[in-house]
Amino acid sequence: MSTTRDRIVSAAAGVIRDRGLARATTKEIALAAGLSEAALYKHFRDKTDIFLAVLGERGPTTLVAVLGGLPGRVGAEPVADVLREVVLAAADFYEHGFPMAASLFSDPALFAAHLGRLRERNSGPQVPLAALAGYLEAERRLGRLRADADPDAAAAMLLGAAFQRAFLGNFTETGDPADFAGTVVATLLAGLEG
């Protein structure tokens, strides 16, 4: 049985996907949920909180799970396999989140509120980057990557490639995600493995 909060998040996901975050209103979200606008504020502080709930609860959750499991995979699995999984999960997350979040940049007040909420939650795009860089650093310390490898740069390249793929997917066909992940990881590892 769905709770009122679940109804709000589900309705918001549809409205935000259709209209973008900047153009979606709490009135539209309430209408789509079959609730009063006041009901939204019993569960969320504002539209930014609703949006973060949509990303966290209705978007692809694989990226969070994959990144959370990285410390336990250090030295235990082939680096290429782990990185392919990260790139696939990141590409999926960005593909679903990009259309909703893109309009954030068109509304300075909304963007500022969003940044503030991310800081409160110690969240944001730097978190996946730090998790992946931490994994690569641990693999480097084990000698599975070259001693002069730069984990921060490698993490930025992998997640940046996944983000670029999601961006381009709005304009053109991007091909098979597994092929993309395999090619990106193989190209990067050619320069990182000793």
Automatic annotation (TrEMBL):
Domain HTH tetR-type: 2-62
Domain of life: Bacteria
Residues within the DNA-binding region(s): 25-44
Any Pfam family matching the protein: TetR_N
Gene Ontology molecular function, alphabetical: DNA-binding transcription factor activity; transcription cis-regulatory region binding
InterPro entries to which the protein is assigned, alphabetical: DNA-bd_HTH_TetR-type_CS, Homeodomain-like_sf, HTH-type_TetR-like_transc_reg, HTH_TetR, Tet_transcr_reg_TetR-rel_C_sf
Protein name: AcrR family transcriptional regulator
Organism: Catenuloplanes atrovinosus
Keywords, alphabetical: DNA-binding, Transcription, Transcription regulation
